[in-house]
Amino acid sequence: MLKKTLTTLAVSMALTTSVQAAQVSEDVIKQSFFPYANGAPQMKGVSTGMVIDQTNVDSVKDALDPAMYRFIKNGDYTIKVAETTDFALHQSYIDATRKYAGDTSLGAEAGAIHGSTAGRPFPQEPAMDDPRAGEKLAFNYKYGYNWGDSASIYPFYWKYRDMNSGKVERTVKMNFHFLNLTHRTQQEPFPAITPNPSNLFRGIYVQVLEPFDVKNTQLLIQRFEDDLKRDNAYLYLGFQRRVRRLSTGQVTDAFLGSDVMIEDFEGYNGRISDMNWSYKGTKTMLLPMYNHNDMELDTETHKDDEGYQVVKFGGAGGCFPDITWQLRKVYVVESNPVDPNHPISKREHYMDAQTFTIPRNITYDRKGDMWKSWLIGQTHPDHHLPINKGTGVSVDDAFSMVDIQANHCTTGQFKGIVDPKLTPPSKMTVQNLRASGR
């Protein structure tokens, strides 16, 4: 009798596992990671090679988010349309999705997730009748392949610009480093770096190199695997030569006097549980995704010893990258702060459905008025630095944060490098802040 019971239990468990695994079919994988396998998206009036400016923007308004439509309509920017290209992620990330996504589920509490080891947690198409579809998409972004398992922006130039005059008020040079300690798929070890006693998911480290008054300012963010646990965030001020812990509110302050909050990094740099997420639909839209080496690059500034040239900027005040855009499948997601004292009322995120990067964001102030426009240009890794070829990383290549109300912007020009040697785990420690600050 006992033997029969154990046999029945084993069969039941096997069937349960089989059912779970079957939830992620090859059709789901194909739709999630290869949305253009059967052809590029089409939209009436939008064609490869066209230039969208204030004379024709009304005819293609549906292809643009509201802020970008406004900029073009005002004559602040023009968009050059290029063909849609495949930004295929690394095969190891796709394979991890096959292996683990069937075991992943949301917890009862917003921000709680179970069974997500590596890969895309929820590769299934979002449904409008799913009240937690927005949260699932947010977790796909958090555990996405943005920068892969580790990468560096080495160096990174921020320019503060008056949008009316075009004057560059300040240039800040820094290095950024990103490291996933868990959910790893492509850089050994995987799926996690051990030991990891604090159970951290990700670290972000920033070191300012220039100008002198902020030189050696450093920022360290340690994000926990448990999304309900608050990040550790530390700031080292070179002139004080000491590390201080950042309060929760400081991640929404202007970082180094720019138009960018720490929470704005990468499109959203915070806990999923800090926001209420809602899925607003799937659209075909123009996004700033391109091949870096095919662009007209900046030959005047920031050319390094290896000959690398950053993206050129133009448009009103020099606030917009001179790049091509392409039609993409886009998930529109809205996030509203849980904290009533947060300085914004909401963000509209335009997530690229293939890569789950966020090339476009619109931020609204507490009154509900459009406040800031975030643009982050993404280059294909095979058309960038040789070291990035084959990594499957959609490389952040240029950003623009426009304060619409103040007519001011902060722009970023990147040299993104996917090289694990540049970002060892030791860099994501408080001890490194002190050692590097000496």
Short description:
The protein has 438 residues and is α+β, with helices and mostly antiparallel strands. It has helices spanning 2-22, 26-33, 66-73, 91-100, 133-142, 430-436; strands at 51-52, 79-81, 105-106, 113-114, 150-162, 168-180, 200-210, 218-224, 232-237, 242-245, 275-287, 289-290, 313-314, 320-321, 324-337, 344-352, 360-365, 370-379, 395-403, 408-417.
Characterize the structure shown.
With 438 residues, the protein is an alpha+beta fold. The protein has one domain (1-173, 256-425). The chain has helices at 2-22, 26-33, 66-73, 91-100, 133-142, 430-436, and strands at 51-52, 79-81, 105-106, 113-114, 150-162, 168-180, 200-210, 218-224, 232-237, 242-245, 275-287, 289-290, 313-314, 320-321, 324-337, 344-352, 360-365, 370-379, 395-403, 408-417. The strands form three sheets. The protein has a 16-stranded mixed sheet that branches. Strands 3-4 form a two-stranded antiparallel sheet. Strand 3 and strand 4 (113-114) form a beta hairpin. The longest helix has 21 residues, at 2-22. The radius of gyration is 22 Å and the shape is globular. The termini are far apart.
Features:
438 residues; disordered N terminus; 16-stranded mixed β-sheet; globular; 6 helices; two-stranded antiparallel sheet; 20 strands; 15% helix; alpha+beta
User: Strand fraction band?
Assistant: 25-35%
What is the first-to-last residue Cα distance?
A: 72 Å
- Structural class estimated from helices and strands: alpha+beta
Largest sheet: 16 strands, mixed
Helix % is 10-25%
